[in-house]
Design a protein that fits this description.
The complex is a heterodimer of chains A (347) and B (490).
Chain A: E1 2-3, E2 9-10, E3 17-20, E4 32-43, E5 46-57, E6 61-65, H1 72-80, E7 87-92, H2 102-105, E8 108-111, H3 123-133, H4 141-150, H5 166-178, E9 184-188, H6 196-211, E10 215-220, E11 231-236, E12 239-244, H7 246-254, E13 257-263, H8 269-276, E14 281-289, E15 292-297, H9 300-313, E16 318-324, H10 328-346
Parallel strand pairs in A: 3-5, 6-10, 6-11, 8-9, 9-10
Antiparallel strand pairs in A: 1-2, 4-5, 4-7, 11-12, 13-15, 13-16, 14-15
Chain B: H1 3-20, H2 23-43, E1 51-56, H3 63-74, E2 78-84, H4 87-95, E3 101-104, H5 109-114, E4 122-125, H6 130-185, H7 189-217, H8 224-232, H9 240-269, H10 272-276, H11 293-324, H12 326-332, H13 337-367, H14 375-399, H15 403-420, H16 432-438, H17 442-455, H18 462-488
Parallel strand pairs in B: 1-2, 1-3
Antiparallel strand pairs in B: 3-4
Helix pairs in contact in B: 1-13, 2-11, 2-13, 3-6, 6-7, 6-9, 7-8, 8-9, 11-13, 11-14, 11-15, 11-17, 13-14, 14-17, 14-18
The chains are: A alpha/beta (347), B mainly alpha (490).
């Protein structure tokens, strides 16, 4: 599948995928912080990532979503300079990550997928180690205290890391990545293996960081977490499916906005047939469940007044009309299905 | 503090914190080697091996009595378990491990001697240790030399005893010579004839006796046979010229007999052992110290331990970081490869130095190991050793994929050091190409230099230290290159 810069899908499986991120919100800064062009990474004969192109603006939370083995970690490692590309170009903070300057590295925070600190060292010692790696001043007591508070590990500072629970270890890793207050934060599956409450807290941290103008790039297997991102990059089997806002993803998955109309009485079949030909509908597809109808519209803002007017004209009593936001899991499945269908058509 | 120093210090603090949380490791690193040294010191004795021996001689052998009485006193290394005539039975016991030595003496050694051949005594032993196998011919030769000496000493004593009667006969002959000269001078016909016959007989007997003794006393015996013929020709005469000629001959005989008497006296007064072994040996060590075996091995053991600790620690270090995923974090951090390697080196250097300090203090205080050189030289040698050993460890670590592989490599280095460093086998016993392995091991330099400093009181060889440091530097650069490659291959 191939998407152009406007996000239009083009049936071209295993070929270049170009994405300039849609402006997610007003908070995104000027210019791109990440530029990836025709990026491929191969291990032996196996492509982990194949011909990926996208850009990410400053100051956003970018979620990299995909199934296990889709290439999320490989992408994060390419962006941080852990891996060097087999082909293509990567620019992060205007530099090739493989040759990051020292000053550039101090602007980056990285939390690997697995706990990557020293298990016999205490929480404080591990944080001091991370701080020293960044060349931070040895008088860092205040920073440490506030960081421990942020990652909610106060009172555990002298506990060896191996005695921490999985969730606490993830928080410690996050602390190590945040210790030098980086401008750009890469988090590889930060919420994997932790309970929903802690996951919620993590997301609160990420938003807090983001609100301070930092860019956060994180990968996750939890598709529902895409909701929390400004931008979502969906990859499957090493290919970029799309890069869009969560809202944009829904549109892509459904073909437009989904509007649910509940009428007092079930609608007649001929009325439904008439409705399906209305220009405001993105597709002909109409789901019906008794007096409840779901339609996909091209633009919800103009479509809802139009639909209300259309129903009123036909004297159909409306109980409610509202935007439906399908769960991200459904969106993800729908997107993958669409890609597979397109690939099938191409074949 | 500069940022670079802060980054480097991260590893020093990390290694310390990591180590103090592992008391068992500290025990293993410091106390165990010390305890081993202590036990070796307490348990090792420097006594030579003792052999339980059975001698095989025919029942009728003249040496049987000698063996029974003398063998046990020849050397404490040989304990006579018994004397027997059955060789096969004794060899069975030897093979069964119930005897250490079977010494077979020929049936009739006297007959062999009469045939102008040495009689061979055979030492049978049952040994697989190459050192003891090599030692046995040496032991046998020393033992037989001593046995020969004692046998000949007995004979010499007998000859000394018999030489007393010869001396009396010499005195009688000399008296007869004096009497004969007086008779000739007095023109006493009867006395001349009587003394001439008496002297002739005495000289004949002496000629025979002295011939048997001459070999033993080792001196020049005058030709009494010729002089006896001259005496035999003396007759009563009044011719003054003839009398004068015979008197001169008899005066010469008298002098010769005096000499023989003197030599016999010397022979009798000389100790048989001096007589048979006129030369003895002694050794004087000009070294400032003659250390015990335990003291001698303290330096090599420290050298070997220091190398093994440094190599193993370093070998596990980067493999551990890779396994834990820390290298990935480091790859993204502003830490350069040089800073990483320097930090690792520094931390390992300090840690190993502390361990060696504690170990050395324990060895010096508790074992009382001698140290006649300067401590600063001792520290310098170990510092260079730690540097190069750490470099070896890092190279191994960067070549290893897993912990167990790193440990295996370290063990190979240890094994090579035991055999090639001069710890176990002398360097001079190794052929030149193999010595190249020796000179690539820090332990080789350490053993030589620590011996020089600790036991000879000499400063370390600058050339050797520079060579060792050069190897360390080259390995450091290789490690840096391998690290860069590893980092790019993450």
């Amino acid at each position: 599948m191939k998407l152009d810069t406007e996000g239009e899908q083009r049936p071209s499986s295993h070929s270049s995928t170009n994405h300039t991120a849609v402006e997610p919100s007003q908070k995104a800064g000027a210019g791109s912080i990440i530029r990836v062009s025709h990026l491929s990474k191969r291990f032996g004969h196996q492509f982990a990532l194949d011909d990926i192109t996208f850009t990410v603006p400053h100051g956003v939370i970018l979620g990299v979503i995909g199934a296990s083995g889709a290439g999320k970690t490989t992408l994060i490692r390419l962006l941080t300079g852990v891996y060097t590309p087999t082909a293509g170009e990567v620019h992060v903070l205007e530099q090739n990550p493989a040759n990051f300057r020292r000053e550039t590295r101090t602007r980056i925070g990285y939390m690997p997928q697995h706990f990557s600190l020293y298990p016999r060292l205490t929480v404080m010692e591990n944080l001091h180690f991370a701080a020293s790696l960044q060349g931070m001043n040895l008088r860092r007591r205040e920073v440490m205290d506030s960081l421990l508070e942020l990652i909610e590990l106060q009172g555990h500072g002298h506990k060896p890391a191996y005695k921490l629970s999985g969730g606490m270890q993830r928080r410690l890793s996050l602390g190590a990545a945040l210790i030098h207050d980086p401008e750009l934060l890469f988090l590889d599956e930060p919420t994997a293996g932790i309970d929903p409450i802690l996951r919620h807290k993590f997301w609160a941290h990420f938003h807090e960081i983001n609100e301070r103008g930092k860019t956060v790039v994180l990968s996750t297997q939890f598709v529902s977490e895409a909701e929390n991102c400004d931008l979502v990059l969906v990859i499957a089997a090493g290919h970029l499916i799309t890069l869009d806002t969560p809202e944009g993803l829904r549109k892509r998955a459904s073909g437009g906005d989904v509007v649910e109309i509940r009428t007092k009485q079930p609608m007649q079949a001929e009325v439904l047939a008439e409705l399906s030909h209305e220009a405001t509908l993105a597709e002909e597809t109409i789901e019906r469940d008794g007096s409840r109808i779901r339609v996909v519209v091209t633009d919800r803002k103009s479509a809802i007044p139009y639909l209300l007017d259309w129903l009123r004209t036909r004297k159909i009593a409306v109980e409610a009309i509202e935007m439906i936001q399908p769960p991200m899991d459904d969106v993800f499945v729908a997107l993958i299905n669409r890609v597979n269908q397109e690939a099938g058509k191409n074949v | 503090m500069s940022k670079s120093l802060v980054r480097i210090s991260a590893f020093v603090f990390k290694e310390f914190a990591d180590l103090i949380r592992q008391p068992r490791l500290i025990f293993g690193l410091i106390i165990s080697p010390f305890l081993i040294l202590l036990l070796v010191g307490l348990g090792y004795h420097e006594n030579p091996p003792v052999f339980n021996a059975r001698f095989i001689l025919p029942e009728s052998s003249s040496l049987r009595q000698f063996t029974t009485t003398e063998v046990n006193s020849i050397t404490p290394q040989l304990v006579l378990e018994g004397v027997d005539s059955e060789l096969d039975q004794a060899l069975s016991l030897l093979r069964a491990g119930r005897l250490d030595l079977v010494v077979s003496v020929p049936d009739d050694p006297a007959q062999t001697l009469r045939e102008n051949q040495q009689a061979t005594v055979t030492f049978y032993f049952n040994e697989i240790d190459p050192q003891l196998t090599g030692y046995m011919p040496f032991f046998a030769r020393i033992f037989i030399d001593e046995m020969n000496r004692r046998l000949v000493e007995g004979t010499a004593k007998q000859e000394q005893s018999s030489s007393s009667s010869i001396a009396a006969r010499v005195k009688e002959a000399r008296d007869s010579t004096v009497a004969l000269r007086a008779a000739l001078d007095n023109l006493d016909r009867g006395a001349t004839i009587a003394n001439q016959q008496k002297l002739t007989g005495q000289l004949s007997a002496l000629d025979l006796l002295l011939a048997g003794l001459s070999g033993a006393q080792g001196s020049v015996v005058p030709d009494l046979g010729a002089q006896r013929a001259q005496v035999q020709s003396i007759q009563p005469t009044t011719d003054p010229a003839q009398i004068k000629q015979w008197d001169q001959q008899l005066a010469q005989l008298q002098t010769d007999l005096n000499d023989v008497e003197q030599q016999l006296q010397t022979f009798q007064q000389t100790s048989p052992s001096v007589l048979l072994s006129p030369l003895s040996s002694e050794t004087k060590n000009v070294a400032r110290l003659s250390p015990s075996t335990t003291d001698y091995f303290v330096g090599p053991v420290i050298a070997l331990l220091v190398q093994h600790l440094a190599v193993t620690f370093a070998a596990l270090s980067i493999v551990d970081d890779r396994r834990l995923g820390v290298l990935e974090l480091i790859r993204v951090s502003p830490l350069s490869n040089l800073e990483l390697m320097t930090g690792k080196f520094l931390s390992h250097f300090i840690l190993n130095s502390l361990i060696v300090l504690v170990l050395t203090t324990l060895v010096a205080v508790v074992l009382g190991t001698p140290m006649i050189g300067r401590w600063i030289d001792f520290a310098l040698v170990l510092a260079v050793m730690i540097f190069t050993s750490t470099a070896i460890g890092f190279v191994l670590s960067l070549l290893s994929e897993t912990d167990s592989q790193a440990v295996q490599y370290s063990m190979v280095v240890l094994l090579a050091s035991v055999f090639f460093s001069g710890f176990f086998l002398e360097l001079s016993a190794l052929r030149l190409p193999i010595q190249l392995i020796s000179w690539s091991l820090p332990a080789t330099y350490g053993i030589l230099e620590l011996h020089n400093v600790m036991l000879r009181g000499q400063p370390p060889s600058a050339i050797l230290l520079l060579a060792l440091a050069g190897i360390g530097l080259a390995l450091f650069l290789i490690a840096l290159f391998l690290l860069r490659r590893r980092m790019n291959e993450l």
